[in-house]
Amino acid sequence: MMRIAAVGDIHLGTDSGGTFAPVVRGLAGRADVLLLAGDLTQHGLPAEAEVVAAEVAGAPLPVITVLGNHDYHSNAEQEITAILTAAGVTVLEGTGTVVDIDGARLGIAGVKGFGGGFAGASGTDFGEPLMKAFVRHTKEAATRLRYALEALDCDTRVALTHYAPIPDTLIGERAEIYPFLGSYHLAEAMDAGGAALALHGHAHAGSERGSTAGGVPVRNVARPVIGKPCALYAVGSGATVEGARMAAPSPSPSVDLAAPTAP
Amino acid sequence: MEDAPRGLRESLKRVAVTLKEADIPFALGGSYACWARGGPEPVHDVDFMLREEDVPRAVEVLAAAGLRPVDPPEDWLTKVFDGEVLVDLIHHPVGRAVTPEMLERSSEMSVDSVRMPVLDATDWFEMTLLALEERYCDLARVLPMIRAMREQVDWDQVRRSTAASPFAEAALLVATRLNLIPPVDAAPVAARPGEIVASGGGIARSGAARRGGTKGGTAEGGKTEGRAPEGIGLRVGKKEDGREPAGQVDLGGKLDLAEADEYLAGELHERLAEDPRVAELGLEVAVADGCILVEGEVATDDRRRAVADVLAEAVPGRLVRNEVTVIGRATAADGTTKVETIS
Ligand SMILES: [Fe+2]
Ligand SMILES: [Fe+2]
Prior knowledge:
heterodimer, A: alpha/beta, Purple Acid Phosphatase, chain A, domain 2, five-stranded mixed β-sheet, 6 helices, disordered C terminus, B: alpha+beta, 2 domains, four-stranded mixed β-sheet, globular, binds fe (ii) ion
């Protein structure tokens, strides 16, 4: 079994130094990989990303993340990505990475995702340019997630997003805001891409568990939802190859962080 | 009824002593806190209040003491069984975090000859009244508790912090008319010059749903676990009660005070999300009787203060009740976190 530690929405500010590092250190020997489901910062400031970087630097396990909407707030997502990458964090955005865990290969494909809503109550690619841009941003994110999942050469695939793929893990949030919390296109991509587990954040008042129409277990790991420093999941079965190393991100090394209204 | 109370009291004492010995801060809550303060003896279960970050360790020491932990689906408490007796360990009563301040306000009392901290009577009524909701609003259960504890309670504080709940308002009205509690303090906030009057005394609110918002237990025996729908929170510290915003700030940041309350609540909610000092999307803003109430959870004290600053600039001169709580977060991945196997 491969052990995944996961948490989203840690929302570190410049005053949060020292709050997350003990969590990361405490995972030594208890998890094989730490997945962060976005909203690492409060305002998307590079100074906040430096705090996050310092908290996870020297982590006893690979740290893999997607960014969240808060991390985009100051239009500094590229800089934040660079700061995190320099600290050894793998930042995914329409990309994937494979971690070798005692011979078993755990593949993680990640994308921030976006809103749009869920089947029967969703936005459509119709009308004003802004509305089209909104829905297209979601669709693009979903497509890139699907390709990133499919491109993973591994034994077990995990999908990591900030926005939610299903409404089940939003229960507790007001129904009126569901379209701002996620999109069913993400779930479609997870089903098509053969994910064994999907992790997301963003919905602080949502619920932890759900599953896509295709049966992919979905967990909302937003910090306020899990109610503990991080959630732990065991996935997949052991394989036989040796070695424990972190593979380079695949397939596209250029992290393209499209802003919500970019075409 | 039956011999339940005896078993309940034994379990209550066992849990309290175990937590005390482990130095885990807690307070006796629920109907046993009411009993300790002179109310009727409960026959159902035992409630302890503690901070969320202390829950794993509490469960650990209680399990070591022979109690049986169960992991309920609710996200605002956990449970342990002592034989047949159910003990609730509550960390988010009525949707709000148990804070160190709340535990500090509790008073050390002798409960069936064991000394332990008992939840402050004012806090207790805030929770109990906020737990009233459409399906559980039996005042026949609440009134005896008001009679039993009335002189221990700061009723103006209870009125302020439960202002958004019509059920709490009804209970307090009945208690006032029965002369059980003092009438509303004179000089109400709504009479301030230049204030717009809330339309029809209604409450407009805007914000995210809160954690576990629709779940809840019963108000049975004064249990505090039911959640008031969208309930207004608990006070954070007496010092800040009734505190007024700083007054004049730059006019550019002001909102139009003539706006209808629901729009004002919506605008303030957006301000809190958009202002870089706060950038918090999960706060809830309510406008009632000319008073702005804001609730929710933030990670640090600075952010809590920033909430007050932003509102003071947006609606200068308005009374702002900052019911935002600072959640203390466990900073270590504790060994008791369960691993879920995905198959
Ligand atoms: Fe978030
Ligand atoms: Fe978010």
